[in-house]
Design goal:
Layout lengths: L2 E7 L6 H15 L3 E7 L6 H11 L3 E5 L6 H11 L4 E4 L11 H9 L5 E5 L7 H19 L11 E4 H4 L12 H7 L5 E5 L15 H19 L4 H31 L11 H28 L14
Parallel strand pairs: 1-2, 1-4, 2-3, 5-7
Antiparallel strand pairs: 4-6, 5-6
């Protein structure tokens, strides 16, 4: 099979028939063998009934229905697990991602050898204040932290080589950082393609401004897990030793200053009367706590079931 198209949908019943027909037209024009997998993320507006109807009319359309709303990452995870196409596409169900972009993105994967092609909505049809400006700030931060030079990392329209989606695990709200997950799995041949962004035709957006705050926090979590997930002592241990050392130096300084003043007959303050002493004490305690956190984290990491999970590129 050439292509799998995975479409998470949450209360998008009005757009699905039109989207399905659009995808079918593009696939037939280019002679692709394909499947479309709709993932109903706990919709309450009859989305699943629409998917059932589409599937009954076309055997290439399949569906998964969640009992409640789990989020886009869960939908993609289940879709990736079932995908059979050599190139896996993801797109949103709201008709803002154009299926007409599929042929060129497919060519970039199959002929140019890219592992992942991410869409770049250069001309967005969203509200500039609530979507465009926060999106630019978010993407600039993501480029800085991940080292991946994408202008629109969270674009729903993406094309993946099949082995990429089978090698990564999407959870929580990490769908925003799939290119980073792919890079950490060893798939570094990542690029982007400017794509046409359609204006929303039905319904309303399911995401608010809070997604940018959540996205930043998720990015920090992913960066930390990638950098120190298998060796947490390298972070907590070093931080704890540094804090302990600073507290120790401060303590020695206070005691030495008191002894010198006492030996010279100068006026001095008791060690426990000095605010610096309590700051040193807190610093030493924090150092010990951080070191113990690193030790516990190391024990947990060593007992993890995927501690020796590696992606092998080739074997002879």
């Amino acid at each position: 099979m050439d292509i799998s198209v995975i479409i998470p949908a949450y209360n998008e019943c009005e757009s699905l028939p039109e989207l399905s027909a659009w995808i079918a037209r593009v696939m037939q024009e280019h002679g692709y063998s394909y499947e479309v997998l709709f993932v109903d993320d706990g919709s309450t507006d009859g989305t699943w009934k629409v998917i059932q109807g589409l599937a009954s009319e076309d055997s290439r359309i399949h569906g998964i229905c969640f009992r409640r709303n789990y989020g886009k990452s869960a939908a993609l995870y289940c879709g990736f697990a079932r995908a059979q196409g050599e190139v896996v596409f993801t797109m949103d169900a709201d008709l803002q991602d154009s299926p007409d972009e599929i042929p060129e993105m497919y060519r970039m994967v199959m002929e140019d050898g890219y592992d992942l092609v991410s869409g770049w909505k250069q001309q967005r049809k969203d509200n500039a204040l609530t979507k465009n400006l926060p999106s630019k700030l978010y993407n600039a931060t993501a480029r800085r932290i991940t080292g991946i030079k994408l202008h629109d990392m969270n674009c729903g329209l993406k094309a993946y080589r099949k082995e990429v989606v089978k090698s990564i695990e999407v959870y929580g709200e990490m769908h925003r950082y799939i290119p980073y997950l792919a890079k950490n799995a060893g798939y570094t041949n990542i690029t982007e393609k400017p794509v046409h962004h359609e204006k929303r035709k039905y319904g309303k957006s399911k995401f608010g401004v809070e997604r940018f705050i959540n996205g930043f926090l998720d990015l920090q979590t992913l960066w930390f897990l990638t950098r120190f997930g298998k060796d947490p002592m390298h972070f907590f241990g070093y931080s704890g030793l540094l804090m302990f050392f600073v507290g120790f130096v401060m303590t020695v300084w206070i005691i030495a200053a008191k002894l010198i003043h006492q030996a010279q007959g100068l006026k001095f303050r008791a060690v426990t009367d000095q605010p610096l002493f309590y700051l040193a004490l807190v610093t030493v305690i924090l150092g010990v706590v951080l070191f113990l956190a690193g030790f516990l984290g190391e024990m947990i990491a060593r007992s993890s079931s995927d501690r020796n999970r590696y992606n092998i590129k080739d074997e002879l």
